[in-house]
Amino acid sequence: MVKRRGWIAAATATAATTVLGTWPLQARAATTWPSRPIRLVVPFPGGSSPDLIARYLAEPLAQALGQPIVIDNKPGAGGNIGTGAVAKAAPDGHTLLFTIQGPLITAPLLAKALPYDPQRELRAVSFIASSPNVLVVPPSLGVDTLAQFVALAKQRAGALNYGSIGIGSAAHLAMESFIARAGLKLVHVPYAGFPQVVNAMLAGQIHAGFMVPAIAMPQVKAGKLKALAVTSTGRFGALAELPTVAESGYPGFEATSWQALLAPAGTPEPIVRRVADEVIRIVRSESFRRELLPLYFSAAGTSPEGLDSLMSDERKRWGALIRQLKLERE
Asked: CB neighbours (10 Å) of residue 254?
């Protein structure tokens, strides 16, 4: 027992020495950071909602940190390419990731193997914003309500398709969840980003899709697309004229899109905390909230722990759905 106690005491002392020895090194690294422009990787195309909101964040964050923030769009594979690039980047605080939940939550649940592990290789910084999705169709489809769309899809089972920004994206899982609830059969067509989904729908290549309102509503207001329902649990602010999927015969249906800021795992904790503190201040400001209004997003702004909690809850929720629907990456 004495020997065991001595071993435990020695191990504890060693661990404490390691932690105490590491923290000053990290703190010293943080005092010289940032020493050059910061690369903010957005794994989606220019003009997408992650790209737009990342740019709104980048300018005031650059002012706060004293270095330029360069947006680096790396689209493809539903956001997995850019996300993987950040996961493998040097953890020195000069590379950050601005992404949606797909590459963080659902892609690992759907894929047998990914070139990155978001839980092991990425560090939460802050939950930035969220938005419901809108179900849109081309006017040529000839439907005005969700009920009419369901009736047509059942009548033409397997003949209609829908677009999303990739397998595991919020748009993909929202539609798969709705398909299961409504008993439909639609063909999934993935694209690199929402602008491509919109273009395909305008060209008559796809028949439906859940999209973030920032992308869908300009086309809806122009009469080029038609919005049928929104995926929030209750009527949503600027989209209050749209019925929810839940009130249209599918109680409890909800599917939101959210965006977050992360860093490579191993980024010094003082740097993570500094970025998080500045981001919280910016995102919770009235000016940033006003920037988000035209995009139909609600500002959040949380600590790293807040984002960790959100991601944990989302893994449980979507994991259950993926297992229920037996979904897997194509």
From this structure: 17
| Structural domain range at position 200 | 134-248
By three-state DSSP, how is residue 79 classified?
Answer: helix
Q: What are phi and psi of 154, to 5 degrees?
A: -75, -35
Of the candidates 302, 292, 295, 303, which has an alpha carbon nearest to the alpha carbon of residue 57? 292
Is position 77 within any domain? no
Specify the CATH number for the domain of residue 199. Answer: 3.40.190.10
Domain count along the chain: 1
CA–CA dist 4, 164 (Å, integer): 58
**Cα 305 off chain centre by:** 17
- DSSP symbol at 244: B
Paired with 134 in beta bridges are 211, 230
Reading the chain (330 residues) residue by residue, the pLDDT tens digits are 444 444 444 444 444 555 555 556 566 666 789 999 999 999 998 988 899 999 999 999 999 999 999 999 999 888 899 999 999 999 999 999 999 998 999 889 988 788 999 999 999 999 999 999 999 999 999 999 999 999 999 999 999 999 998 777 788 889 999 999 999 999 999 987 788 999 999 999 999 999 989 889 999 999 999 999 999 988 888 899 999 999 999 999 989 889 999 999 999 999 999 999 999 999 999 999 999 988 899 899 999 999 999 999 999 988 988 888 787 765
Distance in angstroms (rounded) separating the CA atoms of residues 109 and 318: 8
5 inside domain: no
Classify residue 280: in a domain, yes or no.
no
Task: Indicate whether 59 belongs to any domain.
Answer: no
